[in-house]
Amino acid sequence: MRPRRATLVALIASALGLVFAAYSTYDYAQQLDRQVHAVHCSFIPGAPVSSDADNACKAALFSPYSAIFRATYWGGVPISLFGLGAFAFFIGFAVYLRLGDRRLPRSAYPTFVALTLGPLAVSVLMLTISLTHLHALCKLCVGIYVSSLILAVSAFLGMRSHAREAETAGNGRALGVWTPIAALLALGISVLAPALVYVASLPEYRPLLDKCGKLATMSDPHHGLLKIPTARPTRAVVLFEDPLCPTCKAFHERLVDEGIFEQLDVTMAMFPLDSECNWMLDRALHPGACVLAKAVICGGNAKARAVLEWAYDQQDSLRELGKKGAAALTAKVSERWGQEIASCVTGKQVDIQLNQELHFAASNHIPVSTPQMFLGDERICDEDTDLGLKYTLAQLAPEVLP
After folding, report:
1. CB contact at 8 A, 239 and 373
2. Which of 240, 239, 233, 241 is nearest to 265 (CA)?
3. What is the DSSP string of 273-319?
4. Alpha-carbon distances, residue 283 vs 10, 272, 319, 328, 378 (angstroms)
């Protein structure tokens, strides 16, 4: 591949990376109004946003790996923002190489190659995280990974062919010391500038964190709520969760992955969004959630967390079983947790305890949605349980952050 053709490929790869990073950053910034928005999730730049309630791009966006400095800024600073600046720089460098052609200093192409290894290394790291932690591949992210790979390969091929042409032409230019230094400085400015502008533009979120209400009563006269043992309980929280709620699953995993859950003194109430047992609903949003909520309760304080996390891990298959009726789910519970818990699920005592937990929710005027988190008696706003979780806890309960 001739140098000019290689730089053209590098230019196109950089432009595509810029587009994918721009859409990813735009989707992230959309959430800063504390509302949940649809996101782009396509290999085709400019494709409409995805209307799916759950997709890999949304999972990546709301994961703890999508941004840094989350405890300092609400939502943190998205990683894609640094990619945006980096790809803009490589577009400029590719244009410089293409226009300079044989007049370039000998260090120009080696510098270009060396700098492209940065985005490639970050892409490999993020791909590994996606495969090992998120178990899903975001299409926008894959677009960035592939763009980084093509950029690095085309830069390397351009360097080789440029060196051959320079040798044939007898080009004996000395190494240009200024090129690596100037290029590295320009890359640093390009990467950091968008992030600095982003941080300077963020609104003040602190006054909004404690405006979502409080528990009317902390009293649990029937002792029906579950106490979940944790390693280092330092701050009391009350959680309302539904075993078949995808948002509850993501929220629970976020607390665990960020090391927060083990710092909480957890009181948990089951709040299944299933009209089979929840008299606050006129239809089942999550059919089968009643059976699994009872299974969690039947696990007692010692096993409740394990049963709940099993339900979250197997949520997709359990949701399908839930559509077939309570008997199919109960059989699955028996298969995994034994006949003792399965018998408890069909007993009268667990019906009473679940009803007590629902009455506790009703007495506190809990919105009919999950998850709900109360720090002491202070309700954490729904919008602060995802992107803003770490910032919110840093402001209201810094002792629970590891």
Report:
1. yes
2. 233
3. --TTT-TT-SS-SSTTHHHHHHHHHHTHHHHHHHHHHHHHHTHHHHH
4. 55, 12, 16, 20, 29
Domain edges within the chain: 3-201, 226-400
At residue 267, φ and ψ (nearest 5 deg) are -110, 125
pLDDT for 78: 95
Q: Which residues, in sequence order, are bridge partners of residue 239?
A: 268, 373
Helical segments of 49-107, H only: 56-61, 79-100
Contact assessment for residue 57 and residue 140, using Cβ atoms and an 8 Å cutoff:
yes
| 287 within 8 A of 328, measured Cβ to Cβ | no
With b meaning 16 or more CB within 10 Å and e meaning fewer, what string describes 349-371?
Answer: ebeebbebbbebbeebebeeebb
What DSSP character marks residue 53?
S
What is the C-alpha to C-alpha distance for residues 190 and 87, in angstroms, rounded to an integer?
Answer: 9
Task: Give the chain's residues under pLDDT 70.
Answer: 50-54, 101-102, 166-178
pLDDT tens by residue, 350-391: 999 999 999 999 999 998 989 999 999 999 998 898 889 999
| Architecture of domain 3-201 in this structure | Up-down Bundle (1.20)
Residue 319 phi, psi dihedral angles, 5° rounding: -65, -40
Q: What are the distances in angstroms from CA 7 to CA 1, 90, 108, 115?
A: 10, 10, 12, 14
Quote the pTM value: 0.83
Angle in degrees, CA 307, 313, 319, rounded to 5:
90
Supply the CATH classification number for the domain 226-400: 3.40.30.10
Query: What local confidence, expressed as pLDDT, does residue 170 receive?
Result: 56
pLDDT at 169: 62
What are the tokens at 68? 């840094």
